[in-house]
Amino acid sequence: xxxxxxxxxxxxxxxxxxxxxxxxxxxxxxxxxxxxxxxxxxxxxxxxxxxxxxxxxxxxxxxxxx
Length: 66
Fold this sequence. Notes:
- The protein has 66 residues and is mainly α.
- The chain is built from 3 helices and no strands.
- It has helices at residues 13-22, 33-40, 44-56.
- Helix 2 packs across helix 3.
- The longest helix has 13 residues, at 44-56.
- The mean pLDDT is 95.
């Protein structure tokens, strides 16, 4: 299981997808949603909304299960 490059928390597939979508699609290390929110200076809730938005657009980086 992949871990956050900053805090070492285990990552969900949606956190990995969000990192790839927002930072770099070719990334091999990732940040969790908490560290991404700090990186971008936004709330975790906004990033969760982005996951739903991208999923609804049909982006295959995101799953329905987490």
